[in-house]
Design brief:
Layout lengths: L1 H11 L4 E6 L20 E7 L2 E6 L4 E5 L4 E6 L10 E7 L4 E6 L7 E5 L17 H9 L6 H6 L9 H11 L12 H24 L4 E2 L25 E4 L4 E4 L1 H4 L8 H7 L1
Antiparallel strand pairs: 1-6, 2-3, 3-4, 4-8, 5-7, 5-9, 6-7, 10-11
Helix pairs in contact: 1-5, 2-5, 4-5
The protein binds zinc ion.
Length: 273
């Protein structure tokens, strides 16, 4: 998301919004009065907060875009006039660039918000960014009893980490996804902070290198552990294992992360009953 925000900022930062084409019915999550459209506003810059792209406008309003799992964002030069399947919205900029938000599939729809000055909208209550000192302080001191994998994915605890980064960071830190945070030693906590940060900064570095489509799901191939059950653990080479849920799985190495213990695969054990 960070690399995506940077690319978008380079493409449209400073441009004036010429037109907003609403292409999908469900994408806009806020009500924008018709006399307060976005046309004519300067798009000052594009940043990121958690998993949201934040487009800052000259009137101090902000536009948020959340791509979810199946969303993608295309930069069009010049802007197209098509309405592709799954299209949500197209921003046409005065600099001859179009930004199209679209989505595949039916679950986890991409959405966008127009926030008045000072309105935090869905950004309200997001936890600290992993690179902030507040995250380090939190991980060093929190007595939260939840599992590490659950905590890292909780956007109110820490913002911007999904399943993929959680799997990868826990593998590198040698910690079980199902350890409770309050059970960790100080050195475990320190290592976890460091590995979360290194996994994220490496991902940003590699995304900055990549050209082509701006699709978040494409990141899937960039993970070292996530989605790689059966493949060798990047640390020790043992085949990676998983715990399956209805809609996702947690991937881990039993040698590196669970002291050789096999975690119950709930879906599998239910099938066997
Ligand atoms: Zn391993």
């Amino acid at each position: 998301m960070q690399a995506l925000a940077e690319r978008l900022d380079a493409a449209v930062g400073g441009a004036v919004i010429a037109q907003v084409e609403m292409l999908g019915f469900s994408g806009l999550k806020t009500v924008v009065p018709p006399d307060q459209g976005l046309e004519g506003e300067e798009l000052i810059g594009v940043g990121r907060r958690g998993k949201y792209l934040v487009l800052s406008l000259s009137s101090s309003r902000r536009v948020l875009v959340h791509l979810s799992q199946a969303g993608r964002l295309d930069i069009e030069v010049p802007p197209k006039h098509t309405k592709p399947r799954g299209a949500v919205v197209r921003f046409v900029l005065g600099n001859g660039t179009g930004v199209l938000v679209r989505e595949h599939g039916h679950e986890r729809k991409a959405g966008w918000w127009v926030l008045a000055a000072g309105d935090e909208g869905p950004l309200d209550g997001l936890g600290p960014e992993p690179q902030e000192k507040a995250f380090e302080d939190l991980l060093r001191t929190s007595q939260d009893t939840r599992h590490l994998h659950t905590l890292l994915r909780d956007q109110r605890f820490v913002a911007g980490i999904g399943r993929g980064y959680a799997d990868d960071a826990l593998n590198r830190a040698g910690l079980s996804p199902f350890s409770a945070l309050n059970s960790l030693s100080q050195s475990d906590r320190t290592r976890l902070v460091a590995e979360v940060r290194s996994v994220l900064s490496e991902a940003i570095a590699s995304e900055r290198q990549r050209t082509g489509g701006l699709s978040e799901p494409k990141l899937g191939t960039a993970f070292a552990v996530h989605n790689r059950v059966g493949q060798p653990c990047p640390v020790c080479g043992e085949p990676l294992l998983r715990v399956s849920y209805e809609s996702h799985e947690v991937v881990y190495c039993k040698r590196c992360q669970t002291k050789g213990r096999l975690l119950a695969d709930r879906r599998l054990s239910r099938l066997l009953k």
